[in-house]
From TrEMBL:
The keyword Flavoprotein applies. This is FAD-dependent oxidoreductase. Residues 9-355 form the FAD-binding domain. Keywords: FAD, Flavoprotein.
Length: 494
């Protein structure tokens, strides 16, 4: 190999999809020097994921990007409804589902609203943000091999823009290289899970000006039941860009004719852009970490799209991993802290993938063990074990999943409450740690961790909550000297 340059970076992110770009942004937010390589020349040409749950928006909020993402999402701002009909021309909107609290009152679960934005719109926004934040973003550059030793990872890169082969030495590699993940394969990491869930599908991405047809009954997803052309129509921009999802594996069909049947209108400008076969699958990597290499996003987990959790779970992986890598690189934490990435995020991946699989629509019997949709959307999963003290593994209180009832339990995301207009409990931590206390801050010897007075229903007098940089509660109790000790122990990997 003709190696022309050797470069250094603290972290190499492999893959410039949604999750790789988010990982790079999280790492930069924590001051880490990052290089991202993406073998393609452009971001995703396919709309793919469109629904971003409140937890993802909270993470974009932490990165200072929530309003930028929302601006990118403006085309689908009024498209929350589901719809159904024999054809699009006959379709009706269904009422909106709204979350409610234990007493039936609507709850405000997050400082952010969910949003609909197609992945091919969001990825360029994240790419620009990553470049602006100082990530070295190198598209048309492929990781061809890598080797790790005690001090770091040596990566071989094929840069197709320059025709050069570079070597890059990094302390850590984050593999965001998608479902087929060459990095995962090179590490010999297998996957477990249900495998295929339901039958094959075909996604037909097309352009047609349907703005007059949908005006006044805008939708996110419209179930079409015409016997000759059943399927679901997804709004990509709500006017010109659409994805029709049909069951079956047949790719070669007269799609324009079939689409016109499903639409129930002539659509003279209809133009099919791509036809992609896909198979819903549930597969989770057997390890998320191998030495200095960590898997995130689809490299770590693939799941059916029924709860729209694939990309959202990957964004959460990035948020969990980013602060830990940064803490190790800065010397604040021992490398053992990174063991908690697999301990926390692999069960979270299983949970999301299992819940998605069980929403496949294959069964019609209501399943009382399914998680409340808001538990899925607001990151309500409680880590069973990891970088916290007094969690479920130590007899701590268990967060329910069949109702959305966050109560500030250890190993869960801190519940949202407004502190002042525009300032949420979720804004207290990140990029550093925070301590929220229900009494006088002076009583707490927090060892440099900022202490905030919090009057909230879930925090009784005398108690404090230690909050990690990723909003996860690491400890809860009344001992004013405990938070500093717990934080030091967790950073030491204890
Ligand atoms: C039709 C469809 C609908 C979906 N809807 C939703 C939804 O509503 N909500 C949701 O949350 N999720 C949804 N998903 C899932 C979502 O699209 C994926 O979870 C998401 O794209 C995963 O992002 P990623 O960055 O992990 O992987 P990818 O987007 O696959 O990106 C991986 C990148 O790595 C690059 N790469 C691979 N190997 C190398 C290498 N050696 N060197 C350099 N680069 C490399 C690839 O070129 C690719 O760009 C949907 C998916 C599909 C297909």
């Amino acid at each position: 190999m003709n190696v022309q340059r050797t470069l250094d970076s603290q972290v190499l992110v492999v893959g410039g999809g949604l999750v790789g770009l988010t990982t790079a942004l999280v790492l930069r937010h924590h001051g880490v020097d990052v290089t991202l390589v993406e073998k393609r020349a452009t971001t995703s040409p396919q709309p793919k994921a469109r629904r971003f749950h409140v937890r993802s928006l909270e993470i974009f909020r932490a990165l200072g990007l929530a309003s930028t993402v929302r601006e990118a999402a403006r085309d689908l701002a009024e498209h929350d409804h589901m719809a159904t009909g024999r054809t699009l021309a006959e379709a009706q909107q269904l009422p909106l589902w709204r979350p409610s609290g234990p007493d039936g009152d609507p709850v405000e679960p997050s400082p952010e609203l969910p949003c609909l934005v197609a992945q091919d719109v969001l990825e360029p926004v994240l790419r620009q943000a990553a470049e602006d934040a100082g990530v070295r973003v190198r598209f048309q550059t492929e990781l061809t091999s890598f080797a790790q030793d005690a001090d770091g990872v040596l990566a071989e890169l094929d840069d197709r823009r320059t025709g050069r082969n570079d070597q890059l030495r990094a302390a850590f590699v984050v593999a965001a290289d998608g479902a087929r993940s060459p990095v995962r394969a090179a590490l010999g990491i297998g996957r477990s899970g249900r495998g295929a869930v339901g039958g094959p599908n075909v996604n037909v991405y097309f352009h047609a000006d349907l703005s007059d047809v949908v005006r006044g009954r805008e939708f996110n997803l419209c179930q079409l039941e015409h016997p000759d052309a059943p399927g679901a129509l997804a709004s990509v921009d709500g006017r010109f860009r659409w994805v029709f999802m049909a069951g079956g594996a047949e790719v070669e069909r007269d799609w324009p004719a079939l689409l016109r049947t499903a639409l129930g209108v002539p659509a003279p400008d209809l133009d099919v852009r791509s036809v992609l076969p896909w198979q819903p699958e549930m597969l989770i990597a057997d390890r998320y970490s191998d030495g200095r290499v960590h898997l995130v996003g689809d490299a770590a987990h693939v799941m059916p799209p029924f709860a729209a959790l694939g990309a959202n779970t990957g964004i959460d992986d990035a948020h969990n991993l980013g602060w830990k890598i940064a803490a190790v690189l800065s010397g604040v934490a021992e490398p053992a802290l990174l063991d908690s990435y697999d301990a926390e995020r692999r069960p979270a991946g299983w949970f999301a993938a299992d819940q998605s699989s069980r929403r496949s629509g294959v069964t019609t019997t209501p399943d009382p063990t399914l998680a409340d949709p808001f538990v899925l959307a607001a990151g309500g999963f409680q880590y069973p074990a990891g970088a916290f003290a007094g969690g479920p593994d130590e007899g701590g209180e268990i967060e329910p999943i069949t109702e959305f009832a966050p109560a500030g339990r250890v190993a869960t995301r801190i519940p949202h409450r407004w502190l002042t207009p525009g300032l949420s409990t979720l804004d207290l931590a990140g990029p550093g740690w925070a301590l929220a206390v229900a009494d006088e801050p002076q009583r707490w010897a927090a060892g440099g961790i900022p202490v905030h007075r919090l009057d909230a229903d879930f925090l009784p007098p005398g108690e404090g909550l230690l909050i990690r940089p990723d909003d996860v509660i690491a400890w809860r109790g009344t001992d004013p000297t405990a938070p500093a000790e717990v934080c030091a122990k967790l950073l030491a990997g204890g």
